[in-house]
Each structure stands twice: as structure tokens, then as C-alpha cells.
């Protein structure tokens, strides 16, 4: 992890913390004036924490899925995980109208885990001559789940509201309404503790078995970690794409595939990318803001396209 990356991360954190539509009375901050500190404590600090945890969590989800499937082009958005989480949340809203975020998260985890198992079963069943078809199958699978979610929402008259609260957006993250996202912290710790197993699993089932690692158990653990992270993210801020695709590829290109060494870099890169996208979202139409989900898709898409074109020329 280079000094430049750390410096860029803290610079982005400072910009995110002190930039916004509401003006901060700088002269009153040293006096610990409650009114002056309120926008920072109640809104901007929770938003920054949510950005860091979401970005790092999604980036690590991408790494785990890429090692499970052994394909560089997969992430929660290209395996149906995000769409399955949406469907789970919609089912919880209809079945349990008074459900809170924790109950919705549990439904999302179950649907996301089930979708992950189905996707892996499909990938293992079909022999692909072209690795690019692996994420294509995931996109098709996700489209089916998304269509089911929209049809379910249409049947229950919640289609109009669904598109709003499922779009990746951090503007509604405020104190005492986002704390469930801290569940990503133990997920991060477990991912790091099992980093060596995930690295070996990425070498293939035969090699993993020869080294005494249960491929099925490790894959199941990885899917559980991914499912919880995706569910927490979708419940709190909505769906965000490309973070889990771009960052792991860029890190692997420069630092290799040994997760025990690269996971901190992946987490820092994911957090930095999402904070950068959030700052862009607040600047483009200032004092209004664009949902981060749209900005992340645009920035991540351009970065990944540049990555592919660079690889093609190499």
C-alpha cells in the first residue's frame, strides 16, 4: 500500500466531510458550537462512514466472487446478487409490512445466498470456451431476477417507489438511521482471516483439495460473506455497481492475487472510488446531487472499459 494511496484516501475523506450544500460556520468550529458541528456529526460523518464501509465491502465481495468462480469479470452486479437482494427486500415488505431494516436484511441475505448457489451451479454445469460468457450468464440471470422483482412490485403497487429507494443513494444516510451498515466490519475481518483459503480456492478445486482445503465449505463461506455485505448495502443505500469489478482487477494487475497481501489495498481502493463518485455526485448539479449509483456506474464503466482496451493492446 503506497503513501500516495493513503494520502488520496484521506484527502477524499476531508473533501467529503467538509463539502456540501449546507454551509459550515468555520469560525464556530473551534468553539465546539453545537449548531456549527451538527451538519458534520448528524449527516456528513455518517455518510462518510457509510461510503467507506460500502466501498470496501463491495470491493471485497468482488474479490471473493472472482476467486469462487475463477473469473475476473464477476462481481455482485454480474452474478445476480444485487437483483436477488432487491427481490428479497420486496418480499419482506409485502409479507411483513411493518418490518424493520434488520428483518429486510435477513430476507435479502437468504435470497442473495440462494441466487449465489444457483449461479455457481449453472457455471459449474456449463463448460465455457470463452471466459467472457461467465458474467454474461450472470447478467442474464440477474435480469430474470430483476424482472421477477419488478413484476412482484407491480402486483403489489410498489413499483414506483421501488426504483427510488433501490437506487444507490447516500443522501438519506443520517445519524441513527444507518448503523446496520457496521455489520460489514466483522465481514471484513472474516474475509481477511480466510484470505489464504480464498486464494487457494482461486487456483481450482483440485489444487484446493490437495492442499487440504474444502472447496465446497470455503465457497459457501464466501457466498455467506458476500450475501450479508450485499444485503446490508442494498437495505441501507441501494444497489451500486462496478466497485467490485474495477478495484479487484486494478489491484491484481499491480499487486498480484495473494489476498492476504492485497485485501487492505482492495478495501482502501473500493472506499476511495466510492467517496470520489460521491463527491462527483454532489458537484455535478450543485446544490442538488445525483444518486451515487449512477455516478459509480458511469465512472466504473469508463475505468473498466479503459482497463479492457489497455489489456487488448498489451
Automatic annotation (TrEMBL):
Gene3D superfamilies: ABC transporter involved in vitamin B12 uptake, BtuC. The keyword Transmembrane helix applies. Its main location: membrane. InterPro entries: ABC_BtuC-like, ABC_transptr_permease_BtuC. It comes from the Bacteria. It is a multi-pass membrane protein. The keyword Metal-binding does not apply. It is found in: Cell membrane. Keywords: Cell membrane, Membrane, Transmembrane, Transmembrane helix, Transport. The chain crosses the membrane at residues 47-69, 81-99, 105-123, 132-154, 177-195, 265-284, 290-309. Belongs to the binding-protein-dependent transport system permease family. FecCD subfamily. This is Iron ABC transporter permease.
